[in-house]
Design a protein that fits this description.
- This protein is mainly alpha-helical and 651 residues long.
- It has helices at 2-34, 44-51, 55-72, 76-86, 89-113, 116-120, 125-128, 139-149, 153-160, 166-196, 200-235, 248-251, 260-278, 290-320, 343-351, 362-367, 371-386, 390-403, 441-444, 449-452, 455-476, 493-499, 512-529, 540-559, 571-589, 595-610, 626-648; strands at residues 333-337, 357-359, 481-485, 504-509, 566-570.
- The chain has a 5-stranded parallel beta sheet with strand order 2-3-1-4-5, sandwiched between helices.
- Helix 24 (540-559) runs parallel beside helix 27.
Length: 651
């Protein structure tokens, strides 16, 4: 009887406890606003004025407002900035870190054990979807959410309603909230005082910059929404929330977006590469030349900062645009082949058919691999065009000045279609990094990707690239055919075809007597820029080995593929008959050739007939002869020519 009575009393207590706590929360807000403390929610200076000069009583008041307000809905960033204004940086950092964790823990406890329905109704949908994620019970999602949203109260409530354990929640919050706490304390300790000490014109400039960024974001978002409407109408509205596309199933049974572990792996690799820069392994010269050390001291921080920004944006995509995982590239077209064999020319001619194809441009690859970065730049570009393109003209002038030395080898423009191997820079798997890091075996192995990398590493790289293609199609229209040109994908062909089973290949070849010296010459400018040693073993021989693998591997992969699944052209065919080559591509791929693009093709054919390359190179300059080149590469080139004849017989 006593046991039953105690259980009955316990159930009565629980029945009344939740309503009483909810009433207490409402009473707290009523007293808070009635006491005139409402300005604290939006103005750190109001909190500073309230606390400053009250000694320990002011500190207790600050702590109570921080913990209770941060748990019940007031953004903790306000209290952290105010702490930076009130106390020294070390003291403010400790107070803010402990107070933020206390507020997050209280919010977690209240949402899990007290008023589940109340807090669940006040969680934004964009955040609540993480509570139902299959990965939401681990520490990584907590760290990611803290890095992106800091100690935003709805995140605390959502995690309290999830399956995550409190110790995991607390540890993830400690790790993820520390960078944000340091940043916000720094804003209060130095940022706001510095800004207020500036002239009114400077303050107005900062405010105008913030307004411009907000307008650019909203404009870019509207552009993407308008582009995605045709795809939504064609394919129908899919279910909400992150899901796996068909391509994601190639890599794993579950959907694995860009993760913190991948970022950590890339950061560790970057540290190793940077260390080898100043202490290269034997037999490379040690120490490096003074010029190389100066160049790398400038390059390494700039490159690291750029990749950190890209990683933050990529992680932010997982929260703001998880629906990009729905996108599935359908029968993409990859232009691959031997370096210096006309792949760039063919790619840019095909890319001019914007009704059928979408492809990466240089500005995306360098500045905006993430969706949120693209939105900002698209919005800024539209605003700039509305103002008469002053920014566009300045940027174009700067780019022309910087890239003028490459005009004879590989003309560059931010608006041009370009090789998308730069997309692999955040994970340090872009082979172009061999130029700043010539002593890195991790980069050198990328030139022999299918044979020298482990299967797990190949799948990781291809999974990352697949998500980057999904992001591009999400912004520019998944109803279009994705077009990629990348000679660096030639050693990755087997892995690429495994990741994109429906891919169609267009390959280009060239006589090794012309392609080999042209490739070595093309790399000289970058090699010289980074003051790399021009020893035969370090410079020339590695490109000779690379070209040999390109010829043999391309022939091997194409010979194992059905003749109807690819097209192969010699560079001279492209120069002499680009129109007929493109027409054969359209016929093989069963793509309709529009009247508009047909006229563009006529213009390209006329320009190609009169084009003469200004790139000059000589076999003898690199200690080579036509005989030695034919002996080493002749069989691979003959195999490619036979494959070209076979595939053309199916036209």
């Amino acid at each position: 009887m006593k046991i039953r009575e105690s259980k009955r009393n316990s159930s009565r207590l629980k029945k009344w406890l939740n309503p009483l706590i909810v009433l207490g929360i409402l009473a707290f807000f009523f007293v808070f606003w009635a006491a005139g403390l409402g300005d604290v929610v939006s103005e750190p200076h109001a909190l500073v004025a309230l606390v400053d000069g009250r000694g320990w009583q002011g500190f207790l008041l600050f702590a109570a407002l921080f913990v209770l307000g941060g748990a019940l809905g007031i953004p903790p960033a306000i209290f952290v900035v105010a702490a930076g204004l009130l106390w020294s940086f070390p003291a403010a950092l400790h107070i803010s870190f402990l107070g933020g964790l206390a507020a997050a823990s209280l919010g977690f406890f209240l949402s899990r054990h007290v008023a589940r329905d109340f807090f669940a109704a006040h969680i934004p949908k964009r955040i609540s979807r993480f509570g139902n994620s299959p990965q939401s019970s681990g520490i990584k999602p907590v760290v990611l959410l803290r890095l992106l949203f800091y100690l935003f109260p709805p995140v605390n409530w959502m995690l309290g309603l999830s399956r995550i354990r409190f110790c995991t929640y607390l540890m993830g919050s400690m790790l993820g909230a520390l960078p944000g706490t340091i940043a916000y304390v720094f804003i209060g300790d130095g940022g706001i005082p510095w800004l207020l000490s500036q002239s009114p014109l400077a303050i107005a400039g900062v405010a105008a910059g913030g307004i411009f960024m907000i307008l650019a974001w909203r404009t870019g978002r509207n552009i993407v929404i308008s582009r995605r409407k045709p795809a939504d109408l064609e394919h129908g509205q899919g279910p909400k929330g992150p899901q796996c596309s068909a391509g994601d199933q190639v890599f794993s049974e579950k959907c694995h977006p860009v993760s913190l572990s991948m970022f950590g792996r890339s950061a560790r690799l970057f540290i190793r590469l940077a260390g080898r820069t100043f202490c290269p392994p034997k037999p490379y010269p040690r120490p490096p030349s003074l010029k190389r050390m100066v160049v790398m001291f400038l390059f390494l921080p700039a490159f690291a900062l750029l990749q950190i920004v890209h990683w933050a944006a990529l992680l932010l995509d997982e929260v703001l645009f998880p629906d990009y995982h729905h996108v599935s590239p359908k029968a993409p077209v990859f232009v691959v082949g031997i370096p210096r064999s006309g792949t760039t020319f063919l790619h840019r001619v095909l890319a001019r058919d914007r009704e059928q194809f979408t492809t990466f441009t240089l500005w995306e690859l360098l500045l905006a691999p993430a969706i949120c970065e693209r939105l900002l730049i698209l919005g800024m570009s539209k605003i700039d065009r509305f103002l008469g393109q002053p920014g566009g003209r300045i940027i174009s002038w700067i780019c022309r000045r910087l890239a003028s030395s490459l005009d004879d080898v590989h003309p560059l423009s931010l608006q041009d279609a370009e090789e998308d191997f730069l997309l692999l820079s955040p994970i340090l798997c872009c082979f172009l990094l061999i130029v700043p890091f010539p002593f890195a075996p991790e980069i050198q192995k990328l030139a022999f990707f299918d044979d020298q990398l482990q299967q797990s590493e190949r799948r990781r790289v291809m999974a990352f690239y697949y998500t980057m293609v999904q992001r591009h199609l999400y912004v520019f229209g998944e109803q279009k055919i994705f077009l990629s040109k990348n000679v660096s994908f030639t050693p990755m062909l087997e892995s690429l075809l495994a990741a994109f089973p429906q891919a169609r290949l267009v390959a280009c070849a060239r006589s090794p007597v012309e392609a080999v010296p042209s490739q070595i010459s093309a790399m000289e400018e970058g090699w010289r820029l980074f003051a790399n040693p021009f020893d035969t073993e370090i410079f020339r021989d590695r490109w000779l080995d690379l070209m040999e693998y390109y010829y043999s591997h391309l022939a091997h992969v194409l010979s194992s593929k059905n003749e109807q699944g690819y097209l192969l052209f010699d560079m001279h065919e492209l120069q002499e008959g680009i129109k007929s080559c493109v027409q054969s591509i359209y016929e093989r791929l069963q793509i309709p050739l529009s009247y508009t693009y047909a006229s563009i093709l006529d213009q390209e054919a006329e320009a190609a007939a009169s084009y003469r390359s200004r790139h000059r190179y000589d076999l003898g300059y690199y200690g080579l002869t036509a005989e030695t080149v034919h002996r080493r590469y002749g069989q691979g080139y003959r195999d490619l020519k036979m494959l070209a004849e076979k595939t053309m017989n199916y036209m």
